[in-house]
Backbone:
């Protein structure tokens, strides 16, 4: 489908936000589906507003078929019925917004990104772990001071114009609590799918403070389901040794640390990174008081002995 000329307007934005937005539009010009240019007035396809500006209310009332977006800073709330972009605006979020704009026009206000399911205020480690283990096929928005990520937990994939680079990942390693919302997939219709494993891996390595993740009990033998993609994942040389040990057979964290001559805290971090990327298999110990399979061995031996006697008798052989 050929690109169209579309208009982008701003209302009441702080000067630094307005200057950043003008710069971003120049940078991303070749990455959007349509051609976007700035327009002075309310007759624009997308209007970005400062929710604290009195003019923003006017823009919202006169929006018509425009998409109104609140540019919010910490402590601000978006205008009712608008999508929010958190300042400072990230290029990948702006691309997703502009590409989605034609699909958002004409819907009921607030419906495009209204959450069906919301999780607020949890630490990034717990939030990502729960989200990935749920393996939902739906698109989710993960929001924090570092920006917004659009992810599909079932495939551990990121919907964005480009894969996460190191510069994109580093801010996420410093965030505390995040908000997760299940959203309409049409809100980012033209974004490509990229692996989220780089971020998950680094969160497991650096944000678990020497403690094993929930679901990875201390003293349990661990194995790898598959080898980590060290060609793409950040790693140390000793990670190869740890991966080889877990690939060959089950090891506890303490055994892993001893066999690789590394501190236990580093072994825990490696195990957590593997768990975040769904690379780990946990051998659960037999619960106390549950008879082991070998307890049935005498009855089994009698059963098979009886079968052998029947076969010998049929063949005319002596017992």
Residues:
């Amino acid at each position: 489908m050929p690109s169209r000329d579309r208009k982008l307007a701003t209302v009441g934005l702080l000067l630094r936000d307005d200057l950043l937005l003008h710069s971003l539009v120049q940078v991303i010009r070749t990455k959007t589906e349509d051609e976007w240019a700035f327009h002075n007035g309310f007759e624009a396809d997308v209007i970005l507003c400062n929710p604290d500006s009195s003019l923003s209310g006017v823009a919202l009332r006169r929006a018509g078929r425009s998409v109104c977006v609140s540019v919010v800073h910490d402590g601000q709330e978006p205008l009712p019925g608008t999508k929010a972009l958190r300042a400072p605006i990230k290029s990948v979020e702006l691309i997703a917004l502009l590409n989605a704009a034609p699909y958002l026009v004409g819907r009921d206000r607030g419906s495009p990104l209204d959450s069906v399911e919301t999780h607020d205020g949890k630490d990034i480690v717990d939030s990502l772990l729960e989200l990935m283990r749920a393996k939902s096929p739906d698109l989710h928005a993960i929001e924090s001071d570092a920006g917004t990520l659009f992810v599909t937990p079932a495939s551990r994939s990121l919907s964005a114009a480009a894969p996460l680079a190191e510069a994109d990942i580093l801010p996420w390693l410093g965030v505390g609590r995040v908000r997760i919302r299940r959203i309409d997939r049409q809100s980012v219709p033209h974004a490509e799918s990229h692996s989220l494993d780089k971020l998950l891996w680094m969160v497991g390595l650096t944000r678990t403070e020497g403690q094993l993740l929930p679901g990875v009990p201390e003293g349990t033998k661990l194995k790898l389901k598959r080898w980590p993609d060290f060609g793409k994942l950040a790693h140390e040389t000793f990670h190869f040794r740890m991966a080889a040990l877990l690939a060959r057979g089950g090891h506890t964290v303490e055994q892993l640390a001893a066999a690789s001559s590394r501190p236990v805290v580093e072994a825990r971090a490696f195990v957590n990174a593997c768990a975040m990327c769904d690379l780990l298999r946990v051998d659960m110990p037999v619960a106390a008081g549950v008879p082991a399979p070998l307890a049935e061995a005498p009855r089994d031996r009698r059963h098979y002995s009886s079968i052998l006697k029947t076969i010998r008798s049929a063949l005319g052989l002596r017992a």
